[in-house]
Design brief:
alpha/beta, Rossmann fold, globular, 3-stranded parallel β-sheet
């Protein structure tokens, strides 16, 4: 999976992965994690987060609130569906105009700021 490789290259090593309960999302989380060293993969849990499922009322708020309780050093990958992932991004950035993520696109948000975003086939991340 090219996206998993690119995440490794761009300062993005997960401490946790939260995924939608839908089978394809869980499979994607497993594929992304599989691109990391075996030692890391064994230490990084993949957790099913029901709030990442499509159609869950206030799922974006539930996930944003859960992220806020984590230690500052936590790096959480969210694997889910649109428009929920973009809604989470908009909440974390406090920017309702946050552009919709396209399929197989990642965004790195740190301390309420967008560091980069890129798709699986991009040569370089957008800042």
């Amino acid at each position: 999976m090219a996206l998993g490789d690119r995440l490794r290259w761009h300062d993005c090593t997960p401490t946790q992965i939260w995924t939608s309960p839908l089978v394809r999302a869980v499979q994607t989380a497993e594929l992304v994690l599989g691109r990391y060293e075996l030692e890391l993969a064994a230490m990084t849990p993949i957790e099913v987060a029901p709030a990442l499922a499509p159609g869950v009322a206030y799922g974006e708020r539930t996930i944003a609130a859960a992220l806020a309780t984590l230690p500052h050093a936590a790096v959480v990958f969210l694997v889910g569906h649109e428009p929920l992932l973009s809604a989470i991004g908009a909440l974390l950035l406090r920017d309702p105009t946050f552009a919709t993520l396209v399929k197989a696109q990642a965004a790195r948000i740190v301390d309420g700021k967008l560091r980069w975003r890129f798709a699986w086939d991009s040569e370089a991340p957008e800042s």
